[in-house]
Amino acid sequence: MEGYASAVSAFQSDGVAIFCRVATLETVHSVADAFSSVSGEPGRRSFALVPTVRSLIAVDGALGQLAGFLGRGEMKPVRVLFFDKTPKVNWSAPWHQDRTIALKERVDAPGFGPWSVKDEIVHVEPPTALLENMLTLRLFLDDCGADNGPLEVACNTHTLGRVPSQDAAVLARQSRRFVAVGEAGDVLAMRLLALHKSDRATNPSRRRVLHVDYCGESLPAPLHWAGED
Predict the structure, then answer these.
(1) Which residues in the chain come in under a pLDDT of 70?
(2) Hey, which end of the chain has fewer CB within 10 Å, N or C?
(3) Which of 19, 14, 135 is CA-nearest to residue 72?
(4) What CATH number belongs to 5-215?
(5) Predicted pLDDT at 103
(6) What is the distance between the alpha carbons of residues 174 and 225, in angstroms, rounded to a whole number?
(7) Computed from CA positions of residues 67, 18, 158, 121, in that sequence, does the dihedral angle turn out positive or negative?
(8) 19 with 189: CB under 8 angstroms?
(9) pTM (2 d.p.)
(10) Tell me, what DSSP letter sits at residue 110?
């Protein structure tokens, strides 16, 4: 990752970093167009992806290569979300961890649970060891400043394992915070279990994000990742 030495160092020490200009503006516009059907909603999970998005997030795509470098091995995209914050839909999210994965279907297995269904996709909380080997890449489709409700990440909280929801805010306040501001084409990388939140924008404008979770592990049979061929 030539030119990203400082960002790589930050990711390794804090579990979060911004990588600038990972995607071209042409790619950014193509991705934004692909999600135009969900504009006006806070977010949407999907695996019905157009070729532009599939090639971008694939193992040999721009995001996939970054994930593989940070994960020190091949990392597959295993969950895809699109977030959209606008003046009319100016949402917020409290301090929390991302602890669910998307599966093709529900098959009860030791260590997996509880189960849920989101946007018609089966989700489950897997064993902590699996979550600890995952990471998230969030591609900015719009410029995002400090007044536009950016994601805030509590540094090094990915090392805490599963955090009870009632303890999330207390632990986050005890940690140094990383505010994810950047320009269209930049990518926020963070460890999956990092505590994070997003406040409502104080000066709201469009803030669209392509969110992709990556994992380098296979699931135990008979479980299968959603979107897996």
Answers:
(1) 1-2, 37-48, 229
(2) C
(3) 135
(4) 2.60.120.620
(5) 95
(6) 35
(7) negative
(8) yes
(9) 0.94
(10) T
Structure tokens at 125: 């909380």
Q: Which two structure tokens, joined as six digits, stand for 98? A: 């991302």
Reported as a single tens digit per residue, the pLDDT across 48-86 is 678 889 999 999 999 999 999 999 999 999 999 998 888
Exposure class string for 68-96: b at 16+ Cβ within 10 A, else e: bbbbeeebbbbbbbbbbbbeeebbeeebe
The DSSP output letter for 130 is: H
Render pLDDT for 131-144 as a digit per residue (tens, 0 to 9): 999 999 999 999 99
Tokens 């509590």 belong to which residue?
Answer: 154
Which residues are CB-contacts of 154 (< 8 A; sequence separation ≥ 6)?
95, 171, 172, 175, 176, 177, 178, 194, 195, 196
Q: Which of 176, 178, 193, 91 has the alpha carbon at shortest distance from 134?
A: 193
For the chain, the residue count is 229
Q: How far apart are CA 188 and CA 76, in angstroms?
A: 17
Q: Hey, CA dihedral for 21, 24, 27, 31, is it positive or negative?
A: positive
Strands 151-154 and 115-118: unpaired
Chain Cα centroid distance, residue 104: 19
Euclidean distance between CA atoms 121 and 66, whole angstroms: 26
The answer to whether 80 touches 49, Cβ cutoff 8 Å, is yes
At 209 the three-state DSSP class reads: strand
CB atoms within 10 A of CB 197: 18
Residue 120 φ then ψ, to 5°: 65, 15
pLDDT score for 45: 60
